[in-house]
Amino acid sequence: MGSPVYDCLIYNGLVLTMAPGAMPLAHGYVAVAGGKIAAVGQTDTLQDLPAARERLDAQGALLLPGLVNTHCHAPMVWFRGLADDLPLQQWLTEFIFPAEGAWLDADKVYRGTLLAAAEMIRGGITTVADGYFYEAAVRQALSDAGLRAVVAQGVVDFPAPGVPDPTRNLAVAAEFLDTGADYPDRLTSAVFCHSPYTCGPETLQKAKDLTRGRGVPFFLHLAETREEAASLKRRTGRSPGAYLDHLGLLDELTVAVHAVWLSPGDQELLALRQVKVSHCPESNLKLAAGVAPIPALLKLGVTVGLGTDGAASNNNLDLWGEMSLTARLHKVWGRDPTLMPAAQVVALATREGAQVLGLGETTGTLTPGKAADLIVVDVNQPHLTPLYDPYSHLVYAARAADVRHVMVGGRWLLSDRRFTTLDWPALAASVRDQCRDLAAFCRQLRPHP
Amino acid sequence: MGSPVYDCLIYNGLVLTMAPGAMPLAHGYVAVAGGKIAAVGQTDTLQDLPAARERLDAQGALLLPGLVNTHCHAPMVWFRGLADDLPLQQWLTEFIFPAEGAWLDADKVYRGTLLAAAEMIRGGITTVADGYFYEAAVRQALSDAGLRAVVAQGVVDFPAPGVPDPTRNLAVAAEFLDTGADYPDRLTSAVFCHSPYTCGPETLQKAKDLTRGRGVPFFLHLAETREEAASLKRRTGRSPGAYLDHLGLLDELTVAVHAVWLSPGDQELLALRQVKVSHCPESNLKLAAGVAPIPALLKLGVTVGLGTDGAASNNNLDLWGEMSLTARLHKVWGRDPTLMPAAQVVALATREGAQVLGLGETTGTLTPGKAADLIVVDVNQPHLTPLYDPYSHLVYAARAADVRHVMVGGRWLLSDRRFTTLDWPALAASVRDQCRDLAAFCRQLRPHP
Asked: CA of B86, closest CA in chain A: separation in Å?
């Protein structure tokens, strides 16, 4: 009996499996079969490598799990750079809401999501959690792009893109969940209630019930701004965490996005209920929302992942920037340079992010049996030379453009920086063509500066 | 009389001259002659373009002044990622000082600087201010790489690399200044006193005198950490700004680097004396030093530029990260999302940075008569599509890898991402070879984790 022949073998890399406690494997390899990781090992003699139909010499590059983006509004790439450096409410009510209401449609959501997918794939993201409207179009686009995704239909108690009648918001979400069965396993359909200030208590509870019955995540923006937390307190007498707990919304499948203005009691409540947290520091800073108490949440045992948020408030879908900022920001905020060391931050962007999305058994580490979701990061570059500590480089020096190859479920989505599932020139041309309409529309809203 | 024939014409770009009040020029061009900018204009008909010996079609890319890095310790790329996530004093005394003292020599400084130059050129930096030891080797390397630079010999009152006898620190600096005349105009030789806590008052004053006589900048780290400011107060009874003013060190050619822990009185003093400030936010966060009061300093009229600091404390020499962080950090710190808008941040990284270094007449804007220091940034990419506001993209979405071409003084240093002055494969091989010694040396200092 000969050794097994794998579908694909990536070898001669520095393998970071991101499994807890695992050491980097020099001269490491990952073997892929049937879309899954079949073996991980190391050898510096080529003849000892297992047989495979396709072989890729990683040439000393870093080989690690694909990054997990735990919060995104993919179609909002249309609004990237349309209006910046404004107060949150002015930005939302004068630009984003009008543009969403009058200009977006399902086709534009589909194409915007392909554009977002192109950016995420080229930045090494293999799994994304998205929450928006026309989410069926998002699901189709992410499926076509080949990404792993948790797609969550947006719910608010006022007219929204694709849901002009808010009394139908839950019916639309239920239908979205029901049609999820038509998609491959790598797409999980879920629900995203925008926030406690845009959804009433009954909406929140019914939306949570929709997900509870199906065992899928329930996302919501929580305590993003100080004003939001203060207003909730005035309205309900409760802090953000206590309010959601009172409504019975806190459990291990609830993902609290932002989680900035949490009292110590709220933090303990999230830990107790095993609520997951998505940390989006670039967006939080740009909107002047605040700094989430991530070191404290981690100390309490809360599972935390990183998110880019949408390109309208970031303005990129680049988890490398989020890693760098996460590692730096909490050091200065907590006045302690030992907070959020590099290896921990890489774990948040991979293994922990997968757990936030309920995909801890599927992806997030290079472990045999999990999906073959992986990236190859080229370190043969001035800004990554010399190399002493791969985790340090990933967090403090590497950038999205250093990702050379991206695989999801055993399929290459990016090969030597070229897309395999997307036609970038055609997509770019159609996006540029349509964004002229949007620019014209927005000039009506406010005289262009 | 025909129209003049230029040396080089870069056309079909979106030109941001960064001159105060100038609007972006669509279908813009820049003409170069004799190493200087000869003309800037716009036309969308090819036949109206001026004649030139070399023509580059920018294909809709952004064309702007090269970035100005106002603070760097280039040779410290050797120490990138060698020790992270540690308290500042432990990092300095247990790793950096021993490695600098026992391992560095002039040749390693030269090669480290070439490596740093490679990273900076590929990230669109055309001017850098460096401060280190063996600075003559830094000067030679930056000259060979083709960058514009202010190179400043380091001065401290204890044994330093290349200056084992600290009583010779000023003599070494004076000799360094004197030999600067042998170099092209694009190299300015200056002095970098490390800080008020490593240099006594007499050293500071004599070093400042060396620069004053020659009309060149005087750099020093000022008020980087809270402990430093508190200790100075205990020792001298004065705040950092007041102490330097008392010594007569504050004038328009002094560059205060970091400038984090400044009292309101210190801030006013810096403004009154026209002291320049170099802001290095990525380093300040990583070392948990603090957040410099940049919006307040700008309001007082202080000229501020951006700096990367060295790769041992950052860990990159990438001004794109500094721009993104500068725009975001002060919004959340000052609880105001309108602080540090994108266009202002691009100005800090170009025009204002040049003024910080006393090079405002030479570089920093695309103005006829100034040196042809410019970069071409490729926006035909997913993360920069669509494009409404070029300043927003440069600050919030673009990255170093988006820089396609770099010119300094009319000479291409990077052409379609390829180096013209550096042999990257040979440099990479020699750096990797020598960094093994350093890694072995550092393992003696502390058991490897």
From this structure: 5
